[in-house]
Design a protein that fits this description.
By secondary structure, this protein is mainly alpha-helical. Helices cover 67% and strands 2% of the residues. It has a single domain, classed as Growth Hormone, Chain: A (Up-down Bundle). It is built from 16 helices and two strands. A hairpin with a 2-residue loop joins strand 1 and strand 2.
């Protein structure tokens, strides 16, 4: 287990500062997205909406993020990463503020569209920065740290947000989050340096933004990554949006105890993300660890979508396992996906992938809403069917992850690197593809565990 601990020397001080700021950005936009789900029972009652209408409310954010991501992806690699991050963070903060100032279903949907248009694109910029400035052999651990924003949102944000909603109104958590976002904006503006390394080599006669975006979208390596992303979203977001409502209406969990799910689950992902899944992915291969987490995730998905009335400890065990396995999948696959694209196109690719991710999540929530009946205080029906859809999507990811191939690029050193940042594993995550399209075999001296997929 000693090899799985995160030592301070894994990253330099500048890298740690970068990762912590990016984690704070992740905390804000992820909390805004996931906050809607535990508020489902309260929103359904307050706004008098059905499960299907609530599913559309969740989908509005993701569809807006997908649409704006398509536009942003065309320009993402043509500007300073820091400026793009701050622009999107500011727009997201405004959208979140609007969510806290409305009390009508359609006005809330409009506010969610604004928040999604900016917030949904933030993840693409965050992961592009990690891909640009963290070497591949340490990228899994870095993703575990940055994705700690999700865990922090679960442990700190959601319980506090739900507490605010219970003491005030469902709008209150959004006002709180808007204030937190303003603080993070100031910190990012002061702490982060300019990030223009990806602009090196660009010329005035380069293809137009949309021509280059089309080239990114048509690259076979990228298409396989996009398909994998879509399947992952269907394996998660058919189940998650209606989890709180199902536990309250069907399993009999008190609505006032929902914060325990996210508190315990968040603690589980905080521990396993940077201290288990990330180091495991760097040591044994990103794709191998993804497959392990995906296969194990089938167990809690099956359990949670078929839960009868059970005790609180049973509920917490099942939901925590589901969150931990989902965290392992996302950490390992994101580290893997950042390597399928050349650095000069990474911003466009990651933003386009984020757009596809958001669109797939919205489609999954919409499909789940069609399969689920009930709501408005009545037990939900069809949730077990949604579970089978999620399991089928999970099995599909196992087939798709083996098709990924890494981009053939020279090893580049990050300006954030320095002495005292030793590699944890070889930088090879999967067999590379040379220009003739045939996989290149690993050299004899490469360690077997370094590759994430077999030749």
């Amino acid at each position: 287990m000693a090899g799985l601990r995160i030592k301070s020397s894994v990253f330099t001080r500048r890298e740690w500062l970068l990762l912590l700021v990016l984690t704070a950005v992740q905390f804000c936009h992820i909390l805004d997205f996931v906050l809607m789900m535990p508020l489902a029972p309260m929103l359904m009652r307050s706004l008098h909406v059905s499960a299907r209408e609530f599913g559309l409310l969740v989908s509005a954010y993701t569809f807006a993020a997908a649409a704006s991501g398509l536009l942003a992806a065309a320009f993402m690699d043509r500007y300073d990463r820091k400026r793009m991050l701050l622009f999107l963070l500011a727009g997201f903060g405004v959208g979140t503020l609007l969510c806290g100032l409305v009390d009508d279903y359609w006005l809330l949907m409009a506010a969610r569209v604004v928040a999604g248009s900016f917030g949904g694109v933030l993840a693409g910029v965050v992961f592009a920065i990690v891909g640009d400035y963290i070497r591949p052999e340490r990228r899994g651990t870095a993703m575990g740290v940055v994705m700690g924003g999700f865990s922090a949102a679960s442990v700190l944000g959601l319980p506090f947000g739900l507490s605010l909603a219970e003491r005030g109104a469902w709008e209150t958590p959004f006002l709180f989050l808007a204030a937190v976002t303003a603080v993070v904006f100031v910190i990012a503006a002061v702490a982060l340096p300019s990030m223009r390394g990806h602009l090196t080599g660009r010329r005035s006669d380069d293809p137009s933004p949309f021509s280059e975006l089309l080239a990114v979208a048509r690259e076979p390596r990228h298409v396989r990554a996009f398909l994998l992303t879509t399947a992952i979203m269907f394996s998660a977001f058919t189940v998650v949006p209606f989890l709180s409502a199902y536990l309250v209406e069907n399993v009999g969990m008190p609505e006032t105890r929902l914060d325990l799910i996210y508190l315990v689950g968040g603690i589980g992902t905080i521990v396993t993300g940077p201290f288990l899944w990330g180091p495991l992915a760097d040591r044994f291969g990103h794709a191998r660890v993804f497959m392990l987490a995906a296969m194990l995730s089938i167990i809690p998905i099956t359990a949670v979508t078929n839960l009868p009335r059970v005790s609180m400890p049973v509920i917490l065990v099942v939901t925590t396992l589901m969150m931990v396995m989902a965290s392992g999948r996302m950490i390992s696959v994101t580290a893997l996906i950042t390597g399928v694209v050349e650095p000069r196109r990474r911003g466009s690719f990651m933003t386009l992938n984020s757009s596809i991710q958001q669109g797939a999540a919205g489609a999954a929530a919409f499909v789940a809403g069609l399969l689920i009946g009930g709501g408005e205080g009545q037990p939900l029906t069809g949730y077990n069917t949604v579970g089978w859809v999620a399991i089928a999507a999970t099995l599909l990811t196992l087939a798709l992850v083996g098709t990924l191939r890494q981009a053939t690029v020279p090893v580049q050193h990050s300006p954030f690197e320095g002495a005292g940042a030793p590699p944890l594993a070889e930088p090879m995550e999967a067999p590379q593809e040379p220009s003739n399209g045939k996989p290149r075999r690993r050299s004899a001296d490469r360690r077997p565990h370094a590759a994430a997929a077999e030749d």
